[in-house]
């Protein structure tokens, strides 16, 4: 009924989200709009177990990178997995880190806010004695392992790929924020 142009115009005002193409992702984002949707949907499973996932992340991080334990004054004395898993201090820090990742992941829909937030968090690490930018990248594998453990069979090859892209992007921007702040400190123009 009606001409083709009327049908096209009417389709613009439909309330059916499946009838419309997905919004385009910001070109600065490493994820497509569909991948962002999948990431956020999957992330809900992580968020429901955010403390547990964070503890798994840190236990794996320290198993693979023992030298990092000395950077954490509140729990550097935790030399065994059992001590780490039962530590309130480690649980609090792990949860704080996971909430930071949560903010980064949820921020992928607004890239300006994402860059500002994640790079600011990276810059604050210049205040940690002995911390170097490469330490951020050491989180990638433990994060992916923790996500896989938490999600179980929901951690499909597609979700794994999306998580890899996402965590690398977040870590690269933490590094960028750290390096820019370090350079500002060295030049005497620090804003942190």
List the helices and strands and how they pair.
Elements: H1 4-11, H2 33-47, H3 50-64, H4 81-85, H5 88-106, H6 111-124, H7 134-137, H8 140-151, H9 157-186
Helix pairs in contact: 2-5, 2-9, 3-5, 3-8, 5-6, 6-9, 8-9
Write up this protein.
The protein is mostly helical and 192 residues long. The protein has a single domain, classed as Globins (Globin-like), CATH 1.10.490. It is 64% helix and 0% strand. The protein has nine helices and no strands. Helix 2 packs antiparallel against helix 5 and helix 6 crosses helix 9. It is flat, with a radius of gyration of 20 Å.
Domain count, please report it.
Answer: 1
Shape, per Cα inertia axes: flat
Report the total helices: 9
How much strand content do the residues show? Answer: under 5%
Structural class: mainly alpha
Please count the beta strands (DSSP E, at least 2 residues each).
Answer: 0
The termini sit apart by: 63 Å
Q: Which residues sit in consecutive blocks of at least 5 with pLDDT less than 50?
A: none
SSE series = HHHHHHHHH
Structure characteristics:
192 residues, Globin-like, 64% helix
Summarize the structure.
This protein is an all-alpha fold. The protein has helices at residues 4-11, 33-47, 50-64, 81-85, 88-106, 111-124, 134-137, 140-151, 157-186.
